Amino acid sequence: MKKIILLTCIFISMNxxxxxxxxxxxxxxxxxxxxxxxxxxxxxxxxxxVVTNVAIPRLEVFEADQPNGTSIIVAPGGxxxxxxxxxxxxxxxxxxxxxxxxxxxxxxxxxPTGVDGIKEITDExxxxxxxxxxxxxxxxxxxxxxxxxxxxxxRTNASxxxxxxxxxxxxxxxxxxxxxxxxxxxxxxxxxxxxxxPVYPWMTVIGEYTVPKDAPPMLVICASDDPLGxxxxxxxxxxxxxxxxxxxxxxxYSKGGHGFGMKxxxxxxxxxxxxxxxxxxxxxxxxxxNK
Length: 291
Description:
With 291 residues, the protein is α/β, with parallel strands linked by helices. It is built from nine helices and eleven strands.
């Protein structure tokens, strides 16, 4: 019954209905249970469309009209309490489609909350930040497993979707950046991404890490004035790749704040996705399409 209720909520939003939805295989964890149904709504706090209480991992599939073989799994951020589904998800996917890149917006499992998970994380951030870490700890491994399952799905179905199985990227924002790096550090030969784009990644929740011997090309994106202090861990991540002789680049903007995603702020950071695209072309991870 719980699964039926959760799946029913999926079909409320018409813009979701416009896309193919794929449920990913997953293993349940008795330590993490959801009593509130998944919900999509506009958050006045974040001024963005959000999703909370994801208990069943899924992919929203955005197929390019002229696919060039490259695909990217997009993991929105939200502190693992929610997903900034529009600014860091669907809007990103639609932009990538214009460049011939097939996109998959990943709804990975989230911290179980009440009806307004965004208010919960905002209140806890102001009064008891340590509680956020406690609630996130048992969920992050599930979110990372969902990311790995997403890569497996895309690679397995690559030939049916005009996708090159050797050009599958993973792009994640904030908590989605933690998922991106968790995927990178835990991948096997079959489910590793071919390139990664951590955007203002939440690295402190990952803890200590070792650069994989077969580390994929990486482009790090962040802003120096990130109010959550994510600039330094982002530069450390870039330095770790560089020190170990791995292919890496970084765009660190002086201004941009946190959670800029596809929002327009009239700042240089507004152009991050175009600069990602130029990097991907340079590294031969994608190619231009003829229109």
